[in-house]
Write a structure and sequence with these properties.
With 320 residues, this protein is mainly α. The protein contains eleven helices and four strands, in the order ααβαβββαααααααα. The chain has one domain.
């Protein structure tokens, strides 16, 4: 795949970031509007004709609730935005890699950064014998590259350089910022879907309107589940191509596409990081480190955020 250029890719990802910041809140407000509509309709059924109080008019209820919904989302987003680095470290078991511990890795990272005139990111390590790596962060202060112990020990210098160049390409292209935003918002929809699903068990307990409440909860489950599915599709639509572009960026950076192809081939044989159970965090890796990676056909693979690694290797070998 032809690399489209850093400036154009940054512009595209900045646009995607803006799209996410608009699309996800709009989708969230749509969810609450639908739920409020059915709640208001259920309450209005107790009144003849249209002689029901304005307090149960769905438009009035929505307009009253919207500022609180947006405020709650804003607080969630700010907390997640500020604490994403700590969350990712906890989810992956990563810790800082000291220069004195592995000068080889630092030399590779520094040389690539100097060649592109970019500030060196933090370097972290996951104590796992499997092979994987990822980049994360939202700005120069928080950008980092994380490598597993296995990928450091099992790849030669050219292969490891290719992997590091791939992760640096994600940082240069601003892919990592787009992913962090999508992870935060998809997490909101996952939380709402879980709350709606768990609420069904409490319907009807000491409530004469249990039947009506049950119908509303079922509607809420369907609506939140549909919104969660749509949010995954939005994330899928902007994230899958980034791996091809980062591969192409690494090939351009190192002039050794064959080395990254060889590294991906080795990574594909053992990418599973035991500490990583969160699927949202798993999408950051160069190859998804969850058990579903080993399945030839599954629902997860149908909506995978990563293209098939065989296809990536094939495209890289075309550079040779």
């Amino acid at each position: 795949m032809k690399y489209i250029g850093l400036h154009q890719q940054i512009q595209r990802n900045n646009f995607n970031s803006l799209l996410l910041l608009i699309a996800f809140p709009v989708l969230l407000l749509t969810i609450f509007y639908i739920i409020i509509y059915f709640v208001a309709r259920d309450n209005a059924s107790e009144y003849p004709g249209e002689n029901y109080p304005i307090s149960i008019d769905h438009n009035g209820m929505f307009l009253s609730a919207a500022p609180f919904i947006l405020a709650a989302v804003g607080i969630w987003f700010l907390i997640a935005w500020a604490g994403h680095a700590a969350f990712i470290r906890l989810a992956t078991g990563a810790k800082p890699l000291e220069r004195k511990e592995n000068k080889r890795v630092y030399n590779l990272v520094e040389n690539l950064c100097i060649s592109r005139g970019m500030k060196m990111p933090m370097v972290n390590i996951i104590e796992d014998d499997s092979l994987n790596a990822f980049a994360s962060g939202i700005n120069e202060k928080s950008y980092s590259i994380t490598l597993s112990r296995g990928i450091i020990n099992k790849l030669n210098d050219e292969e490891l350089e290719g992997v590091i160049a791939h992760e640096l390409s994600h940082i240069r292209n601003r892919d990592v910022r787009v992913l962090i935003i999508s992870i935060i918002f998809v997490g909101i929809f996952a939380f709402l879907a879980e709350v709606a699903f768990r609420s069904i068990r409490f319907v009807g307990r000491g409530n004469k309107k249990g039947k009506g409440s049950g119908a509303i909860i079922l509607i809420a489950i369907v609506v939140t589940a549909a919104a969660y599915f749509i949010s995954i599709l939005l994330r899928f639509g902007i994230s899958r191509k980034r791996e091809y572009l980062a591969d192409a960026g690494a090939a351009e950076m190192t002039k050794k596409p064959y080395a990254l192809a060889s590294a991906l081939r080795k990574i594909s044989s053992d990418p599973y990081i035991e500490a990583v159970e969160n699927r949202d965090v798993a999408q950051l890796f160069i190859n998804n480190p969850t058990p579903s990676t080993h399945k030839s056909a599954s629902w997860d693979n149908l909506f995978a955020t990563h293209p098939p690694i065989e296809k990536r290797i094939e495209l890289l070998e075309q550079f040779v």
